[in-house]
Amino acid sequence: MRYAIVKIGGTQYKVAEGEEIVVDKLSQEEKKKREFDDVLLVVNEKKVAIGTPQVKGAKVKVTVLEDFQGKKIRVATYKAKSRYRKVKGFRPQLTKVRIERISP
């Protein structure tokens, strides 16, 4: 099995070819191809390439599938004995991508 550890938007993801993952929103249009070269680790069947900090020449090619909003996160704050309560909501902007190819 071939997989890689890639850094996308400041977060590290373990990805394999053909897999679909959800990442923080990318500034990219849907159905477009994109390439990430911030690859930290590449594992083939028997060969492991560890980057210092990146693997030289390694790239991960992805296709942007869709942009969407995640589930609402509710944050509640209160102060004891003073009847102060406040609720805020937040919906993260996310992007779903498909890993097309991992090139060593």
Keywords:
single chain, 104 residues, mainly beta, 4-stranded antiparallel β-sheet, 10 strands, 0% helix
Describe the protein in words:
By secondary structure, the protein is mainly beta. The chain has one domain (3-103). It is built from no helices and ten strands. It has strands at residues 3-8, 11-16, 20-24, 33-36, 39-43, 48-50, 59-69, 73-79, 84-90, 93-103. The strands form three sheets. It has a four-stranded antiparallel sheet with strand order 2-1-5-6, with no helix packed on it. A four-stranded antiparallel sheet has the order 3-10-7-4, with no helix packed on it. The radius of gyration is 19 Å and the shape is elongated.
What topology emerges from the helices and strands here?
Layout lengths: L2 E6 L2 E6 L3 E5 L8 E4 L2 E5 L4 E3 L8 E11 L3 E7 L4 E7 L2 E11 L1
Antiparallel strand pairs: 1-2, 1-5, 3-10, 4-7, 5-6, 7-10, 8-9
Short description:
The chain has no helices and ten strands. It is mainly β and 104 residues long.
**Largest sheet: number of strands, sense, barrel closure:** 4 strands, antiparallel
The topology string of helices and strands comes to EEEEEEEEEE
Estimate the mean pLDDT confidence.
91
From the alpha carbons, calculate the radius of gyration and give it in angstroms. Answer: 19 Å
Number of strands: 10
What count of structural domains? 1
Q: Percent helix among the residues? A: under 10%
As an assembly, this protein is single chain
In whole angstroms, the N-to-C terminal distance is 14 Å
- Poorly predicted parts: none
Report the principal-axis shape: elongated
Question: Count of helices?
Answer: 0
Which sequence of strands runs across the widest sheet?
2-1-5-6
Q: How much beta, percentage-wise? A: over 45%
> Which structural category fits the helices and strands?
mainly beta
